[in-house]
Each structure stands twice: as C-alpha cells, then as structure tokens.
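Exercise (ungraded).
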Amino acid sequence: MYLSYKNKIMAAEIKTIKSNFQKDLENAESRESLKKLKIKYLGRKSKISELFSNIPNLPKQERGYWGKELNILKNQISSVIEARLAGKSQKEEKIDLTYPARLPDQGSNHILSSVTNDICLIFKELGFNIISGNEVEDEWHNFSALNIPLEHPSRDAFDTFYLDLPEKNQKSGSWLLRSHTSPSQIRMMQKLNPPLAVVSPGRVYRPDVVDATHSFMFYQIEGFAVGENLSFADLKGTLLYFAKQFFSQEVQLRFRPHFFPFTEPSAEVDVSCVICAGSQAEGGGRCSVCKGKGWLEILGCGMIHPNVLEACGIDSKKYQGFAFGMGVDRIVMQKYQINDIRLFYENDLNFLKQFPI
Amino acid sequence: MKFSLNFLKQFVEIKVSAKELADKFTSAGLEIENLKKISEDWVFDAEVTTNRYDWLSILGIAQEAAAVLGKNIKINYPKIKIKPGLTEISISAEDKKDCPYYLARVIEGIKVAPSPDWLKKLVVNCGMASVNNIVDITNYCMLKWGNPLHAFDKDKIEGDICIRRAKDKEEFVGIDQKRRVLSKENLIIADSKKTIALAGVIGAKNTEVTSSTENIFLEAAKFSPITVRRSRRHLGLDTESSYRFERRVSEFFLDYASQEAADLIEELAKGKFSGFKKIGKKTEKQPKDITIGLAKMKNYLGTDFKINKVKKILKTLNFKIQKSTTDKIKVKPALSRFDIEKEVDVYEEFARIYGYGRIKAKIPFLKKSQKDFSLLGREEKFWEFKNKIRSFVSLSGFSEIITYSIESKEELSLFTEESGLELKNPLRRQEDSLRPVLSLGMIKVVKHNLNRGKSNLNIFEIADVYQKNKNSLKEKPFLSLGISGEKTRFFLLKGQVLAILNYLNIKSVQFKESKKKSFSNALEVVVKGEVVGFLGKINKKEKEKFGLKEDLFISELDLRLLEKYKRDKKFKPFSRFPAVWRDISLAIEEKIKFKEVRRIIEKEGQYLADLAVIDSYQSQELPPGYFAFTLRIFYQSKQKTLNSNEVDSYHNNIRKKLDKKTGIILR
C-alpha cells in the first residue's frame, strides 16, 4: 500500500514506540516501575494517545487502517505490562522479620496464688474439698483445740498477733490473726461429720520482722482427712502423690519423726532436692538450693491427735485421720529458686510478669 | 542442744561412726543439724522438740542411742547421802506451786580451781564455757541428768533462805553482770537480806562462786515450768537452766544430780560434805500403764509387724512390759517420759524407731459424708468462683498483686470512716491495723511501679477486708482493680467492671455518682438496689501525698455479693442479617451528659443495634466548653437485610433530633 508522507511518519513513530517500550520494559523491575510504564505508554498524555488524536488529520481512506494499528499496539503493550504485573503480584511483599514482636496485653496471676491453686487442685484429684477459712480467729480454735496448751514452750513456734476486740466468751479467748491454717481444720471438723477430706489454703500471720526469709504474712495450705480406717500409710501415699504431681514423677519423700501438739505420730517431710535430685547428698556437694543436703523440708504432718478429734466432737475411738500443713512461700521459693521472700509482697511488675497466668 | 560423743559413750556402747549415728538420730526424730569433730570427740548439735525434756540430758540421749542401735544403757546411780542434816540455815517456800521440792547440800573447805582436762572438754564440747571446777561440776551434772543446779558461795548468804516472788521494781544483778528490774512475775531465791538468784533462771552476782570461795551451798530444785517461763520472758532472758525448767524437769533424777555434784566437789575441789536439807516433796506421779492393741496399732500405722518386734523396740526405749498376750501389750513408760500418755504416743515411739520409711505409702480412697455435701459444695463453689474471677481479670490484661492485710491505722483512715481493727501487739506503727479497704495496698504498689519507669498499669488483688461492726467483725473477700494513666482510662476501669458483671451475667447494673473519702468522681456500683462496690479516681490531694506519678482509678467489689447476684447464662437468639453502621461526629457542651445523647438515639433508633464512641478529641475550632467525639451507630433488623437507603433515612432522623438539641453541634 502506498504510504503518504504523514503515514511514513506514523509508521516510524509506531516503530520507535515499540523499540522504546522494549528498552523500558527491560529496565522495569518493580511493580512500581511497571505502573509508571503503563502511564507512559497508555496514559492520557502518552505518545499513543497523541497519535490517536492525530488520526483525523490523516487521509480519510487511511484513518481506519492506522486506528487499527494503534489499537493493536496499545493492546500489545497493555497485555505485556499486565502480564508482567500479574507475574510480579504473585510475589509476596517482603517484610522485616526482625521487627519487634507486638505482645498481647497480658496480665498475670500472682505466683503464690497460682501455686496455691495448683497444689489444692492436686489434692482435689484425690477427693479433697477445697475451702477457704477465716483469717481472724480466736485462741480456742488457733491453740486450745489443737492441743497447744497456754503457757507452753510449744507455743513459741506460734507467736501471734492479737486483736483489740472483746472476747466472745471465756472458752473462745482473745481474738487473733491465725498463725497457721489449722484452725480451718477445727472449724470444718466441728461443722461436718466424718468421713471428710478438706484442704484449706490462705494467709497466715506471725509477728516476725520482715527480712529475706521472714514475713509477718505468708501463705499456708492445710489438709486433713478423717475416716474409720485412714492410716499413716494413707498419709504417706497422699503426700507422695502430691509431691510427684507437683515437683516431678522422680521425686522421693523422706518422713522424719517430729513433734506437733496436734498430731501423733508426727513427721516432717523432706523432698529430694528438686535441683540436684539428691545427687549431692553424699560428699558435701555445693547445691545452692539444698546446701548439699540432698533434701528440702517442705511440710509437717501426722495422724490427728485424739485430743483434737475429741475437741471437735468426733469420737476418737471410732474415727482416725491425718493432717498436713505446708508453707506455700517456701515451696515456691525452692521450686523457682527465689531467694528473697519480700519479692512476693513488693509486687514489682518485673517480678510478677515473669510468671504469667 | 549440743552434746559430745565421748560423753554418750560413758553410758552406751557405740561402734558406728558419728555420721552414721547422726543419721540414725535424725531419722528417729532427734534432728542433728550439725556435726563437728573436735580433737578426739564429735559434737552433735540437735534440734530438740518441745515435748522431749528428756533429750535435754545426756542420759536421755544415751537412751535414744541405745534404742536406735538396739543396745542397752548402763547408768551408775550415786549413793544418796542425807546426813548430817543442815541446821544453821532454814529454807522455806512461799508457794508450793512455784517450788514444790528443794534440796540443799553444803560442802565445806573447798578449793576453787580450773577443772581437770576431762571435765573441761566434756563441758566445752556440750556447748558451755568452762569457768572453774565448781561451776563446771554443776553444769556437768545438769548436762548428764537434765536437772539444773546452782552453787552459791555459802559465806555470802546472810540468814535464812526463802523462795518467793520478787517485790515490784526490785533490782537484780545477775552473774552476767546485767542489771534488771524485777516484778511479781519473777520467782526469786532470797536470804534474809537480799535476792540471791532468779529461781531457775540465773544466779545473782552477790553470792557467785569466786576464787576465794571456801564453802558451797548447792541448790537442786523443782520450779514450776510456767512460773519460770513467765519469769524469764518478762525479762527477755533465756538460759540453759530456764530452757530446761520451762520444759519440765524430772524430779526422779534430782537427788542423783545433786548427790553426784556434791561427790564430785568433794573429789575434785577437796571439800567435805557437811549438811543436807530438803523441803517439800516429790509430787510427780509415775507414768501410767498403757495398753495397746496390736490390730488397732496396725490399722493406725497402716502396716504389718510382729508383736515381738514391738516389744523389743519398746524395751530399748526403756518401756517396761507389764503384761502381754498375743494381741495386746501393757506397758509402763520410762520415768522421764511425761510425754507418753496415750496409745498413739506409744504408736509413735514404735514407728519412729521401726522407721517411718518402712511404712509403705498407699493412696486412700476418700469417702465423704452424704449429710454435709451441700455445705462443702457451697464453700468449694465460692473458692472456684474466686478463681474464675482471678482468671477472667488476669486474662483481661491485669496483673495480680498480693499486699499485706495489716496497714497503718493513720493511712487507712484516709479511705474510710470505719475504725479499723487494731492489733494489740503490732511489730511497727506502719502495720498496726487490719484493713477495711484494699485501696491503700493498691496505691502503694502502683507508686512502686510508677517510680520504676512503668506506666499505664492494670493491676488487681483478691483479698479479705475486715470490717468492724460494734464488737464483732466481718471478714469479706473483695476484688480491687487499679488502672493508672490519663483521664479517659477511667472508662477502661468502668468497662472492666462491666465486663466482670457481664461475665457473671449480672443484669440491671446501675452506676450512681457518690462521694468516697479521698476519691473524686466516684461511682457506686448498684445491683438490685444493693451497693456491690465502687469505682473512682484518687483525688489530687492523696495523689500528691502518696507521690503518684499518674492518675489512679480504683474499683473495689464485694465478691460475696457478686456471687449472690450471678446468674447462669442462657442462649439468646441473634439476628442473622448483617449489621450496617454510620458515623456521626458531634460536639457537646460540658453540662450535657453523654447519657442525654444516648437517650435521644435510643428513642429514635428503630433498628438500633449498638453504639460506640470510636474517637474523641478537643479542638480549637469548637466553642469553649465543648467536647467532640465520633459515634458509630449500628443498625440491624431481625427480619431482613437493611438497604442503604433505609439506613440513611433512620440515621438522618437521628441526626435531625440531635441537631435540634441545644448544646449539641453536629460536625
């Protein structure tokens, strides 16, 4: 077909566009540059658009031809760019994975209350009921009913805060802040009929000056069971079950005879060191937790003294039972290697947040 | 109690090593806390439990060694000499209860000198200082028999001896050189002119044995444990002597202890026994026989053993077998064993020597009385309830704290009109009362953490508060929530309170403006007409007083009341059609409350499903006293999908109504 002068220009323009586009396309790496290319070649101010607007100036019979040619070019460029873009969009955006994590707003349970719960729930598995007792008590429940006589050296272990409140009656004696959780045992045995099994956690108070190992307030868990045939062997089994569930299946317990006014026979119980597993017991090892002894004292226990049962109106000829009590603070300190009891009551978030939920 | 191996060996054959013996003692209940070798001897440091008076003597420990080693103990009892009688000094006791029995022996012409080596070593290895032959002999006999003795310089005693209570404010100088002021609480030994000893506790300086002493008045006595305990506690004093008297001293060995001391003084200090006197009499009864049944004992200990084993062990513990059949044994405990009164005491004696370790553990099947199930269940439910609240709140982003229940009365009075419950014997003024509110502990913890660079805190505590009601006391479990930070965080606290109430399905909750000591902007939380708690902001004055770096919002809720109003949840059908929302930006004048805006919207909104403040701000463009925020209103129908035109028309209606209200500007 004969081409007019203008058409020669047209043909040359199309050729230039094609070759420029090829060059540009080679350099267009990113989505961004492809989008720019799209604007450059297909946008309102592009060369192609200019050529389209120039069509009316062409000879009438050629207008159709060049219109078609330009459309073909436009479609070609468009499809190449779209295909490239489509290829590009398959790729995920790369993000900086070293950017700091965004933590959820997380609270925490205090380590003493979560461990108290953990322990109570282990006993619940064995059939104990969990009951919180009162912290304000009277002398009868805190001492007398527990076979701890007035004016006896055995009371020295139980220095007590007394309250400025008139006594209810002569038998009950002065009001005080319980110095152990055992009065809960008395209250339950007074209220309930055997057989029964209860654990009772809570705060107890003793007038000790606060230092790294003493606090005038701390946590205890009391547990007891009364039935017709409960024996010292049952006590051992109960506590062994607890220790294995709480510390680990490998731990051993050692029952040492001891004296508590409210139990007979009585024992102090040691658990094989949770850190050195008793491996340093011989030869004076240097385990910082058990001080090389291989054992850690964790609780006191025994068969409930008949005087205690009788004080609660339970027939000690028919019923017998066992009781145990443990200091939660000390157990937590051993298990988590916390060296200062004051950390529990200072409530520094740097401490609290170490033990979430 | 410290004791030496060589001392023990005088009474029982010991072939095992000191370490082995210490382990045997510990596993039988005589806990050896420390074991140390000193030249040819070993020193044991034992923790003696308060029931074992007998372990405060070498003979008692020798008996224990015999039991754990399966041996017999041999004791040579001295021959008691009571002639000639002592006539020149008369002795009387004001109250037989304080001093039922008193022995005196006089030894004359003695020579005070350092002790011979063997005596020195035994006394020192049992943890006492060697003073001179006389004092060392009294200590040696106390260590051996368990009975404290005291030697007076007889020539410094003027007139007769009386055991009586001290006069009020009487001064006393002990052999420790310390001056003390006595009272009626103190039992003393006095001569006709002065006080010469605090009975059972310490001797006086004025009659102390010195290097020039020639004649000895040797005291051996039984003093009331309670009297000695009160006396020494009153003075804040604790001596080897009082330690033993408090735990009860056996009368049975008193004569022997006194006699052996007198004999030793004669022998080692070259004196001559020249007089004996006693007043009162032995009052202690012999321990009673106890009959134990083998079957019951096995059932109690939960293990099986032969009756001969029981007899053998009890014999090594110096029990006398009075009678025995195939399944019963009647025993008499040793003279010094006041602690053996019941069958269970005998069980323990057997079990601790038999070995607690030999009793096989078994897991019990625990039964429960049907009768009490509801009470147990109710109490346990409340424990579970508290735990549910704890988990809910901590999962909402709050950290649990545990603060002391004892606070200062003065600081507590800032938060409550109620008078707190005071302690009679506080350790310090800062902790002298039981708290009726939890806020004070919360404030202190917030302050601590804000001072350490933390901010915007969310913390909580679950603890009992104590409320005095005339002469009785109520102990109530409470929950406290504390949120610190800028002022709109108040609504976070309000939201948290609401979330808890929603969680418990507690309906018809009202927040009522109220006054609360040391709080500003306080609201009472009311359920069915009953106040279940409050929330509010710590006011500026207290914020400054406690040095809080941020505003602090606190809520306290009564957990028993929350439990009372909580209801089980029931499923509520919800709309299956989509919700559509439209926003409105508006500004309201300060005096108009948000609840007014809510009222207008709720009145008009036919398909109103929910509304929320999504943004709030203050702007320069607003008239003064106006506050701007953006509300998002959700529309939803239970029957159909709302189309855009419908929603627009409802929404425009609301806009118009809001626009009409003076004090509200639509933006």
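Further reading is listed at the end of the chapter. For now, observe: The two ends of chain A are 86 Å apart (CA to CA). The beta strands of chain A are 129-130, 136-138, 175-177, 196-205, 217-227, 253-260, 263-272, 295-304, 320-327.
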